[in-house]
Design a protein that fits this description.
alpha+beta; Aspartate Aminotransferase, domain 1; 4 helices
């Protein structure tokens, strides 16, 4: 978040992050979130997390550790806290 604040003057509703440790580590992070729902969507009001390689299937070009986050209307501090605890 600190890096994004320095690099961008405004934020969109979607961002990606790559979890060190590949697929298994990314899936653990996604499963540990409490506010984010594991789903794919581009237009809802709830916060979602998805593992891109699983969604795209065999032959994907997405890194195995990539998670895509769609940010909803929940409190930003709550979402940051949820991600921090999920990342451990």
């Amino acid at each position: 978040h600190d890096i994004a604040k320095k690099q961008m003057s405004m934020f969109g509703g979607m961002l990606s992050l790559e979890v060190k440790g590949g697929r298994d580590a990314a899936m653990k992070v996604a499963n540990r979130t409490k506010i984010f729902t594991r789903a794919t969507s581009l237009g809802g009001v709830e916060s979602l997390v998805e593992h891109r390689a699983s969604i795209e299937g065999p032959g994907t070009q997405s890194p195995e550790g990539l998670l895509r986050l769609s940010i909803g209307l929940e409190n930003a501090d709550d979402l940051i806290e949820d991600l921090n605890q999920a990342l451990g």
